[in-house]
Write a structure and sequence with these properties.
Layout lengths: L5 H24 L5 H17 L9 H26 L12 H5 L3 H9 L2 H11 L5 H8 L3 H26 L1
Length: about 170
């Protein structure tokens, strides 16, 4: 008869509690054609969580997981970018819109979000789309709470400026 250790029980609860949130985050950050890649990255994230289970900050599991998932997505994008450079001779197919692009119905907002720097867009989406609180944002970005608050403020200012500019163009 298998005996499940306390550590395994803790990890099983951890996975049950957080895996759907992380998978949603990953699917929101990856193209629709990358469902399998999102699940693969989720497996990587949970493997890292298993290895570091005792060092994950208590009551800050989600932001810690977002930070790990974010790094894995960035690594995946870099890998894809390298692969694309190698395969430049192969004709490109049209790029699939990301889940992020498909979910944003307002074209003005979508245009403004896409015009933001990647780091500003990510900061805004982590707070307003994923619902991270300021202290969780700081952990997800790997910064202090003050730095995260400044980044969010600057990102919001940049977004507002872009939206105001687009309103001026419509007149």
């Amino acid at each position: 008869m298998d005996r499940v250790t306390k550590e395994e029980e803790k990890f099983n609860r951890f996975v049950l509690e957080h895996s759907s949130f992380v998978l949603k985050y990953l699917r929101n950050r990856m193209s629709q054609n990358s469902v399998v890649a999102a699940e693969d990255i989720l497996n990587d994230v949970m493997t890292i969580a298993w290895k570091r289970l005792d060092s994950i900050p208590e009551a800050a599991e989600r932001p810690w997981l977002v930070a790990v998932a974010r790094n894995r997505v960035l690594n995946e994008r870099a890998k894809r970018s390298r692969r694309n450079r190698i395969n430049q001779l192969i004709p490109r197919r049209g790029a699939s819109p990301s889940a992020e692009e498909l979910s944003i119905a307002d074209s003005t907002l979508r245009t403004a979000l896409l015009a933001l720097r990647e780091s500003d867009r990510e900061t805004i989406l982590l707070v307003y789309w994923e619902g991270l609180k300021p202290e969780e944002l700081a952990l997800a970005l790997g910064t202090s709470s003050r730095t995260a608050a400044v980044r969010l403020s600057r990102a919001k200012q940049s977004l507002m400026k872009l939206l105001e500019e687009s309103q001026g163009d419509d007149r």
